[in-house]
Amino acid sequence: MITNYNKGESFGFFVSFKSYTFHIWLPLYTIMRKQFNKRKFIKRVGILLILGLLFTFICNLLIELGAKGKTYSSINEIPKNRVGLVLGTAKKIVGGQPNPYYSNRIKATVELFEAHKIDFVLVSGDNGSIYYNEPTTIQKDLIAHGIPQERIYLDYAGFRTLDSMVRANVVFGLDSVTVISQKFHNERAIYIANQKGLHAIGYNARDISGQEGFKVQLREYFARVKVFVDLVLKTEPKFYGNPIEIK
User: Fold this and answer.
1) How far apart are the C-alpha atoms of 103 and 97, rounded to whole Å?
2) How many CB atoms neighbour CB 124 within 10 A?
3) How confident is the chain (247 residues) per 10-residue block, as mean pLDDT?
4) Rounded to two decimals, what is the model's pTM?
5) Which parts of 70-124 fold into alpha helices (H)?
6) Segments in the chain forming alpha helices (H)
7) Backbone phi, psi, residue 70, to 5°
8) 167 with 157: CB under 8 angstroms?
9) Residue 43 confidence (pLDDT)
10) For residue 231, with 0-12 CB atoms within 10 Å meaning exposed, 13-18 middle and 19 or more buried, which class applies?
């Protein structure tokens, strides 16, 4: 027996089947594509993070190697320099509590002066407003600890460590200097100084441990990356000014 074959019905069934299949696979394809793009995005972010960490590690390593053997914690071992450069910081922290980084730098400066390891003190810090003046504040405390005022010179434009080191050389005419700060800060300052033609060694003020010390050390990693960014961009101090002779 011959069965009637309706081409129109068969074609309609085929089209309907294709349409049904299309409507099933389109959402699946969209989901799969989104998942693929998401994985691709996560992979790229991961690569960027790894490269960023690697770059940070290299910057930190280069600065440590550049300052190796140039920082001292013993007053008896550190060589004499005519001028000691104190890097400024706030006297008090948020909440009005004394800043141990500040008091330890004052103590280290007095130790160097009393041991005749420096003859003059150059205080470099931020003088951004009438309410905030690091150099004058440090000067008052150094005088209170017995260092004569005429032996203290002030650099009011030491807004950053870069500014302090370059100005010590260009504005104050120093060829060599003893930097006074915590060891991690001294290392960065010495590296910058050497890149800018200033011979520097560091006397390490006592560091801080605990949570506050950890926060500062963490920020230091990023500050060291900024050193190389500044070197590549050839960043200059915010101000220079007329030469000042320390005598």
Assistant:
1) 12
2) 28
3) 45 45 56 67 80 89 95 97 96 88 97 98 88 92 97 96 97 97 97 96 92 82 94 94 94
4) 0.80
5) 100-114
6) 7-66, 100-114, 134-144, 161-170, 183-195, 210-233
7) -115, 5
8) yes
9) 75
10) middle
